[in-house]
Amino acid sequence: VAMETVSLEHQIQSVQRHIAFLKKEQMELLHDLHLEILRLQKHCSELTHDLEIKELEARQQDVLDRELEEKCRVMEARLQQKEKDNLELRKELQHKETLVAALRSSLRSKERRFLEELKRRSHRVTILDTELQKQTEAAAYLS
């Protein structure tokens, strides 16, 4: 019976050592798991922060894109108006160039007629001057 008691005490001590070892292993495992949970929580927080920043940047970019699109629409409308104004000015310029060409033609025609009239009058003056000179000579001869 004493032998059984000693053997039983050895078994109890062995079981207690195993329990202590298992408790120690469990505590180390729990500690490591706790550290891993903390690391994962920190990583998750960083990823969440990065995601929030990217979402904010995306929203800001969307706002900028919409503002740029609106500015483009305004500028395109202005460009179309300027092109329309330009077309009207070109038509007006073409019309005025046509008028200028007609006026130049009319002016050349009038200038030609004036020069012809001037030649005729100059010729007439020469004839009258010659006739006057003859009459002056005749009057001088007669006096």
From TrEMBL:
It comes from the Eukaryota. Signal peptide: none annotated. Keywords: Coiled coil. The keyword Ligase does not apply. The keyword Coiled coil applies. Residues 65-99 form a coiled coil. Residues 9-62 form the CCDC92/74 N-terminal domain. This is CCD92 protein.
